[in-house]
């Protein structure tokens, strides 16, 4: 049952969660604890979950689900009371975030608005993602099924992840693909969502170059004029300053 030890753990976790919000959200840097608790939906949702999860672990019926339902109505964040969430967790803005029953989240994880840690199908047992330590998940990303996101990884905005992600990897796209920037992994506490590579454009460019090479060879063999290489550009060129940490 729920005891003094559980309550002390919840208080300690909530204190750390408030400090994490102040550290990772520029808008909260000079804001007091009371104001963060009163005005940050992500912190409110996490506070409620810490309490609901303690009740769930203590075998208390009904109350954990009622707390989760009320929290969703107030904050727009839905976290199943059975979900396991580590220390220093932060939900930025929060609206539309869904965390399923068997989800497991490590320490120092950041989720942005619209993120889903969801299940697939109707199978019982482990059916939601496991997110390692120090992972950042961008706005609108969908992590589906019992996938594992390795520690220190980044998931780009609107990415759909349906396969495991190795540690220290950045994934973007639908379905998600590992990417590198300038030959190296994307580093930093938050990914720069504006300047991430476009795997689709890169694949089309490689295909265009291959076709042009084949056309040149055919032209040399037949004596006809080669049509040249078609230009492939990204649908939305990456311009402007970095968005990391915003």
CATH homologous superfamily assignment of one domain: serine acetyltransferase, domain 1
Count of individual helical segments: 5
The parts where pLDDT drops under 50 for at least 5 residues are none
Portion in helices: 25-40%
Could you walk me through the main structural features you see in this protein, from its secondary elements to its overall organization?
It is a single chain. By secondary structure, this protein is an alpha/beta fold. It has a domain at 1-94: serine acetyltransferase, domain 1. It has helices spanning 4-24, 33-39, 41-57, 63-75, 199-222, and strands spanning 78-79, 84-85, 90-91, 98-99, 104-105, 110-111, 116-118, 130-131, 136-137, 142-144, 148-149, 154-155, 160-161, 170-172, 177-179. The strands form three sheets. It has a six-stranded mixed sheet with strand order 3-6-9-12-14-15. Strands 1-4-7-10-13 form a five-stranded parallel sheet. Strands 2-5-8-11 form a four-stranded parallel sheet, with no helix packed on it. A hairpin with a 4-residue loop joins strand 14 (170-172) and strand 15. The mean pLDDT is 84.
């Amino acid at each position: 049952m729920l005891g003094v030890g559980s309550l002390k753990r919840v208080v300690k976790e909530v204190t750390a969660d408030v400090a994490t919000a102040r550290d990772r959200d520029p808008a909260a840097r000079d804001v007091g604890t009371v104001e963060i608790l009163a005005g940050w939906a992500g912190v409110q949702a996490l506070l409620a979950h810490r309490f609901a999860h303690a009740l769930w672990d203590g075998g208390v019926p009904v109350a954990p689900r009622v707390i989760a339902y009320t929290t969703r109505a107030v904050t727009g964040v839905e976290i199943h009371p059975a979900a396991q969430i580590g220390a220093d967790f932060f939900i930025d803005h929060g609206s539309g975030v869904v965390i399923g029953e068997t989800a497991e989240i490590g320490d120092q994880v950041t989720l942005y608005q619209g993120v889903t840690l969801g299940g697939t199908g109707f199978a019982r047992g482990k059916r939601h993602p496991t997110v390692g330590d120090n992972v950042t998940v961008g706005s609108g990303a969908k992590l589906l099924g019992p996938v594992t996101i390795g520690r220190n990884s980044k998931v780009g905005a609107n990415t759909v992840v349906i396969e495991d992600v190795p540690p220290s990897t950045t994934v973007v796209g639908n379905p998600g693909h590992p990417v590198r920037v300038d030959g190296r992994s994307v580093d930093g506490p938050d990914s720069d969502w504006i300047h991430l590579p476009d795997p689709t454009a890169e694949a089309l460019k490689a295909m265009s170059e291959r076709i042009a090479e084949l056309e040149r060879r055919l032209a040399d063999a037949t004596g006809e004029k080669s049509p040249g290489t078609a230009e492939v550009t990204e649908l939305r060129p990456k311009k402007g300053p970095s968005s990391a940490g915003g």
